[in-house]
Amino acid sequence: MTVSHPQSAPISWEEFLGLDEELRRDMELVDGYLVPREQRSRNHQKIGTRLANALERAAVAEMRRDGGGSCFETNTEVDVLLWEVPPTVRKPDAIVHRCLPEYEQLTAADCLIAVEVLSTWSARRDRVHKMSDYADAGIPHYWLVSFDKVGALTIERYALSAATGPYTHIGTVHRDMGPVAVSVSDPFPIELGWRELEITPPE
Description:
Elements: H1 13-17, H2 21-25, E1 27-30, E2 33-36, H3 42-66, E3 72-75, E4 80-84, E5 87-90, E6 94-98, E7 111-117, H4 123-137, E8 141-147, E9 152-160, E10 167-174, E11 180-184, E12 190-193
């Protein structure tokens, strides 16, 4: 499927899935309209990868503790269907979600933590539009991560106090405050160190 630019009319969820993969990779869908993703530097992408890897280690540790009673996955930059009418699809920089069969579409109902890495190009969209969308879709936890040339610099954590938004600010941690970046018990025990989130991974 091809889409005229500028887009003259909203498209459906099915039409979005029918787009060429190269086009879809750099697009989100908001109320049926294609929205180009922000420019992302290599360091921005590395921070997203570091976060996903660190979260995956925590998820695997929880599954081992639980003895197979739970199943979690982490991903980067995958389509998350927030709602179908009007169709809205976001691509978090990193995400923790319940395990799904490969053929099933990831939806907000499956997601536990959505993470966005802030940059000059994305800060307003991440703090305003995406925060509102994730809260309205019922994703329980939202993290915003800033970074510098060393690695992750601050992590802001938000959580829902009810089934849907708005989010409540839970806390912000700065790298100068100590070696621990995140220490939480919800949705499961997660402890991340700043060294795990450096652009050049520790030896």
